[in-house]
Each structure stands twice: as C-alpha cells, then as structure tokens.
Design brief:
The chain is an alpha/beta fold and 224 residues long. It contains 9 helices and 8 strands. Helices cover 50% and strands 16% of the residues. The protein has a 5-stranded parallel β-sheet, sandwiched between helices.
C-alpha cells in the first residue's frame, strides 16, 4: 500500500503537536514533530553558548551534534541530543526563541531536510511544523494550516507550562508568541505561510475534541 503523508503547518502554540499526535494515533501513522528537531538544535546552540542568530556559529556545531528521534514505549516521540533524552528540556520557553532563530538559517534547514523526507518516504506520517506543506512535503496527500488567535494560543501555552511546573505570566507568553509569529513569517528561508492547496482550520473557538474532529473531517474528504 502507498504511504500517506499528512502535513500540518501553523504558528507557534496552535496545538499542532498535540493534535498531530492524536491524529497519528487515530490513523495508525508515524507522528513526526519537526519543531522538536529544531528545538533540539536550538538547545545545542544554547548549551554551546553560540548566538542562535549567527548562522556560521550554528552550522559549525552541526558536525558534532547528533540528533535522533526515538519512539518510546509511551508511543511518544523522544528527542535525543548526543544520546541524551532532552524531550522535556526543549519545551522550556527560552528554547522557543532559540528554535525560531536557528530554523531561520538555510544551512540548518537543508541539513535536516533529508531526515524529514526519509521518514515520509518509508512510513505513513503525520508531520507538523512551519513549512511541511510548502517545502518539506510539497506533494503531501493532505495539507492543513492550523491556526488560532494569538491570545488563545497564549492562554493554551500558559496552561501547558503550568502543567509542566514551569509557569510563566500570560503577558510574557503572549509577547513571545507575537515575536515568534513575526520571526517565522519574515525569515528568508522557508517562511511560515499557508500552502495554496492547504485547508485552513481555525481552532480559536474549538476545544480539543472539536479540533480533532475538524481535522479528521478534512482528512476524510481529502483521502476519499
């Protein structure tokens, strides 16, 4: 049977990872969180004391930076940096800005492109990120652009941070989300944008189940 690829793009905090993971479980596909890959590169730069906006400095780290995706007994994607499971550390708020900065570099994106495409060549996947439908998997069977208002995304992110025991003021989180949106949509390399053939799903007024149902409807229509 032909492998199926579902690409989910959208801004930070739109719920891509949570919904994509649930979709993959529902469909029996492999879930690939590309944002986690860039966060891992960002963490590597932070640990090395490198300026994440300095492309040459970040690229110089890549030969010694081994990034691995591993799927645990919990069914979740775990990120390993040089053999260390950093799945929790890469979710800290400060790593978001590092991830956005390193992902703006064409050299970093090119370095990781083959890894992402190989996963889609060898598996049916639900892959989420910023440029999956436009750059990574332009021939994806289903393309979805998932979004929500900045205020709603900030509220959701705050709840998530509280649950992880790393609370942040909502105004701080909102400011970071607005900045990340600007950075992601204005970068020269593969900026965040909706693919022409993507279906936009706005979840501002939807709860988790409502959002999942909306995505399943889109996928059902596209895979008829």
């Amino acid at each position: 049977m032909k492998n199926v690829s579902i690409a989910i793009d959208g801004p930070s905090g739109a719920g891509k990872s949570t919904l994509a993971r649930a979709l993959a479980r529902e469909k029996g596909y492999l879930y690939v969180d590309t944002g986690a890959i860039y966060r891992t590169i960002g963490l590597s730069a932070r640990r090395a004391g490198a300026d994440p906006k300095d492309e040459a400095a970040v690229l110089s780290l890549l030969p010694e930076t081994h990034v691995e995706l591993r799927y645990g007994d919990d069914g979740l994607q775990h990120m390993l940096l040089n053999g260390e499971d950093v799945s929790q550390e890469i979710r800290l708020p400060e790593i978001s800005l590092y991830a956005s900065a390193v992902s703006a570099h064409p050299g970093v994106r090119a370095y990781l492109l083959d890894m992402q495409r190989e996963l889609a060549r060898t598996n049916s996947v639900v892959m989420d990120g910023r440029d999956i439908g436009t750059v990574v998997l332009p021939e994806a069977d289903v393309k979805i652009f998932l979004t929500a208002s900045a205020q709603e995304r900030a509220r959701r992110r705050c709840r998530e941070l509280e649950q992880r025991g790393t609370p942040e003021p909502e105004e701080t989180v909102l400011r970071e989300i607005v900045q990340r949106d600007w950075d992601d949509t204005h970068r020269a390399a593969a900026p965040l944008r909706r693919a022409e053939d993507a279906v936009e799903v706005d979840t501002t007024q939807l709860d988790f189940q409502g959002s999942l149902d909306a995505l399943l409807r889109v996928i059902g229509e596209k895979l008829k």
